[in-house]
Amino acid sequence: MIVDYIRIGNAADDSLSTRRLKSMSVVILTVIMCMASAFFLEPERSIVYRALDVTVVVTILIGLYLLHRSRDVETVFYFFAPAFLTVQLIFMLLNGNREGDVLPFLVTPAAAVVVLGPKRSRPWFGLCFLVMLLLPIFDGALPEIDLPINQTSANPSGSLFQSPLKQPMETGEGLAMTLGVFFVYFLIFSGYRQLEAARELILVQKAQIEHEYQRSERLLENILPAPIAERLKQEPDKIIADDLLQVTILFADIVDFTPRATLMRAPELVSFLNRVFTHFDDLADRHQLEKIKTIGDAYMIAGGMPEPRPDHAAAVADMALEMLAVTKQISDEMGETLAVRIGIHTGPAVAGVIGTRKFFYDVWGDTVNTASRLESYGSPGRIQVSKETYEILSGHYTFEERGIIDIKGKGEVQAYYLTGATTRAPQ
Asked: What pairing do the DSSP bridges indicate for beta strands 411-421 and 360-364?
């Protein structure tokens, strides 16, 4: 119950420091209210002083209510601080510097730094500084006023400003308190500015770390497929190896690249390859296929991995057809012939990550070898597919039967040329 009371101003989205500030405010206000209540119960307390005690208690209760309703400690400060300082100033004019009446003028500017920040705390410092500086002068000019309601055994005449118990603030004491206001505020102000500078530095460093983290994430995702990268982050020491029941592999090779490369300077050669492969990368992204690697002028992609998908063969076929269109477009722009050979095969494979410093996601198996051979034994500007791929796409794509070809390491293989699409292949 006490904990719930202390947390009456807390909001769900408050930071830890804000929660602490609000809880501390509740505790301080409660302590002041208890002190005012204790003063009210003193037997020799006059009606005037008790009225001021009640004012303090009512002001605090309203402040606590505002904190509970608004959840904003600044609202409470702007309400409570002027009212409380006014009451304390009246106490000091009536009673002098007794019972720590001067303390609120020392503490309020420091509290303003914490609640409002250094910049907005300056008016509060100026106010309290002037009060402490001018109070001795103003106190000496107060008139003699006697009120019956202010009579007590210690003040039989009911003197309002010249009570026998009053301890007027002398000029030297006022100067000392003025300096006290200055030094307390200066220490808190300087400390808080340093704290803010440290927080800003932490935020900058945090932003830099976040930027570097995002950069590392992008680099990792450029190297590895997103699902594989996530698995690697979750279990960095675990070997990643997957048996894939059916994938479609595509190999593409630029025809007559070696003679072309001998005629190009290094920057021209790299620029040429980058231009072609960037177009291929865009196609792979559009068809949600996985680029595996480039080897020289060879380009390899896979469908149905790392996450299985039912239309992997159709997606690879669509990309292959668009690769031919892209190379024709580049040829027209360059004013010279550019052609690619493409080979496609569908079947089981094994995929995984190799390396401990430079990670590399690759795929192995007879399916990969067959697709590579189909590309090598293909024709410029044509897409050669295996019988397995043909049977999956048949009826939804157009083909030209090439017949039986003798492939090194594979023997005789039935091959087809993919020539176009009729309707989208079934899912």
From this structure: unpaired
> What are the two backbone dihedrals, phi and then psi, of residue 297, each rounded to the nearest 5 degrees?
-100, 10
Share of the chain above pLDDT 70, in %: 96
Q: Helices marked H in 263-356 — which ranges?
A: 266-286, 312-334
Tokens describing residue 126 = 């100026």
**What's at 193, amino acid-wise?**
R
Rg value, the chain, Cα: 42
Indicate the pTM of the whole model: 0.55
Q: Phi then psi for 114, rounded to 5 degrees?
A: -70, -45
147 to 39, 45, 160, 247: CA distances (angstroms): 20, 14, 7, 101
360: closest CA among 422, 286, 423, 300?
300
Task: Judge: domain 236-421, CATH 3.40.50.300.
Answer: no
- Write down the domain spans for the chain: 2-210, 236-421
19 touches 10 (CB < 8 A): yes
Helix (H, G, I), strand (E, B) or coil at 419: strand
Q: Is the pLDDT of residue 106 over 70?
A: yes
